[in-house]
Design goal:
alpha+beta; 4-stranded mixed β-sheet; 6 helices; about 45% helix; about 15% strand; globular
């Protein structure tokens, strides 16, 4: 099916297999400070299979090489490995940050104390945002505004 178009059927490893394979990957050779697996491949939910990895890098230029090496290590095509670089977290939506740091599974960290400090420093403001967003019904307001403009 779609051979050569990137539409080949891929064998989906089990979640535990993915985590154990990620834990033995050579993260330090790519300057990774910490790595967290998140998303559908970890939760088991979703309609497509891929591996979502959030990383903090000492050199963000290494993200492409990291993606390539991870795909080879896991035995999946490159398009099945998604890398989210957290270094510029202030430009990422809080929903993504909560998914990564709140629900994801750490697969590597160079230093536990540093990892936990960074995690909490980034995560807590997003928790505040999520609480305020619910209280203020921001999502409901946005949906009502859009549907009103569409004439529904």
């Amino acid at each position: 099916m779609g051979k050569g178009l990137g539409l080949e059927r891929i064998r989906c490893p089990k979640i535990d297999d993915v985590i154990s394979r990620l834990k033995v990957f050579n993260w330090s050779s790519f300057g990774v400070i910490f790595a967290i697996a998140f998303g559908s491949s970890i939760s088991g939910k979703g309609f497509k299979w891929d591996v979502d990895i959030a990383v903090w890098l000492d050199d963000q230029e290494k993200a492409v090489d990291l993606q390539y090496s991870l795909s080879k290590h896991l035995g999946v095509p490159e398009y099945c490995v998604n890398i989210v670089v957290l270094n510029n977290y202030e430009f990422l939506p809080c929903t993504l940050i909560i998914d990564v740091l709140g629900k994801g599974k750490p697969v590597y960290y160079k230093d536990l104390e540093s990892f936990l400090d960074t995690k909490l420093r980034i995560l807590f403001p997003c928790f505040d945002f999520a609480i305020d967003s619910k209280k203020l019904k921001l999502l409901e307001t946005q949906i009502k505004t859009v549907t009103k403009r569409w004439g529904y």
